[in-house]
Predict the structure.
Amino acid sequence: MSIPFVDIAIIGAGPGGLALAQGLKKNGIDAAVFERDPVRADYVQGFRMRIRQRGIAALEANLPSHLFQTFLDTLGIAPTETLILDERFNRLENAGWGSGEPEDTHIEKSVSRITLRQILLSGLEEILETGKHFQRYKVLPDNTVLAHFADGSAIRANLLVGADGAGSAVRRQLLPELKSVDTGVRRLAGKITLADAARHGISPLLTDFNTNIRPDNGRSLMITSHRVGPAAYARHGLIGAEDVTHRDIPGFHFNNTTSYTWWNTAYNRDELGSDDILETLDGAALLRALIARIGDWDERILKLIRHTDPSTVALLKVRTSVPGANWQSGPVTLLGDAIHAMTYFRALGGNTALYDTGLLVPQIVAARRHGKPLLAAVHDYENAMREHGYEAVRSSLSAMQRNLGAGRPLKSLLASR
Ligand SMILES: Cc1cc2nc3c(=O)[nH]c(=O)nc-3n(C[C@H](O)[C@H](O)[C@H](O)COP(=O)(O)OP(=O)(O)OC[C@H]3O[C@@H](n4cnc5c(N)ncnc54)[C@H](O)[C@@H]3O)c2cc1C
């Protein structure tokens, strides 16, 4: 049986892998994406993603202009003003809030992950294969790469790009010593539709602002909203509509056409309960655990938590990669979370994955159109990617430390592995 060949094989159809495929397609370069899961229904997929200038610029470079326009037209609307309250609902001064970085002027850009995926998938039907669970690769004597999948199939390529996320199997083989680290932080989040919030009389201070509850003593709670306009999006066809692949999943979590308010909070391990116990709890029980912890907070805040849709609530263990790995460039490379997975603090992971694609596409174009040796192109991409990617990991870790205050010092967190 002959093994098919493609110039650039991409493992993983997350934002990184798909944006790369879009950019290569736009430049007429032969590429194919191999994705394990036919449906993307991991927990965070039900939320919006905060998208910054670096992510938007990469999308503009990689998408055909009509799809980039669709992206702009279907962005959700997030509050633009920030409000800080204490747990008694007293307003605090905003002084010292925000990183002051110019990119934060774009903080209000809020994209539904479901809508972003619909955009990124558009036009890739012929080069995306799902149900392809990558297992291992082999570099052949002619420096091409053979990638093997769980279904027994294989693909040969000039370049294999691991865009397969934080648990990357490509990275496991390329950089086996690089581990994913449990930061010891546990994140809890949930959503309520704006219609339900109004019905239950939730204060507009919790639905119309980016509201940060900063208790005198305890963990902060971030609240914001994502407003959508399905009627306005209708001219873009299925983009911004409900995703058919979520049709059989009950509950509001993967609803893509209803505006909502959502909150998230983070605790150190064991503060809310032991992992053993928390991992067995459903959304309703997790809400009760949180309310038990913050039961003395103002009733207006508690009401928001109490009326949160339990099907949208889950606990996540916050993990990070350890920045700094270096390696010799070859015909296998990495992109996005596969190499620089980071905590969600500062909302940089997806943006950094997109930014990577803005670095890699021009390098591959230089190789394919202007005679640059492919390995030199990969090398230049990796140098630039490592520099900004590792910086983003460090920045998200320091934001986590600032948020959690007296957690374990970062150095010991990363050195203890
Ligand atoms: C709670 C939370 C909130 C966040 N909020 C933000 C935010 O507001 N802004 C932001 O920029 N980032 C945010 N992030 C980070 C962001 O979600 C990730 O950085 C981003 O999804 C990374 O994209 P990726 O394409 O590199 O990987 P992924 O999105 O993880 O995609 C990897 C893909 O590879 C596939 N795959 C995995 N293994 C295999 C295999 N062996 N074979 C084939 N396919 C495989 C997976 O199914 C998946 O489709 C947040 C993360 C979390 C956890």
Observations:
- Residues 5-76+119-181+321-415 form a domain with the FAD/NAD(P)-binding domain fold (CATH 3.50.50.60).
- Residues 11-17, 34-37, 40, 44, 49-50, 132-134, 163-165, 169, 316, 336-338, 344, 347-351, 353 surround flavin-adenine dinucleotide (CB under 6 Å).
- The mean pLDDT is 94.
- The first strand starts at residue 5 and ends at 11.
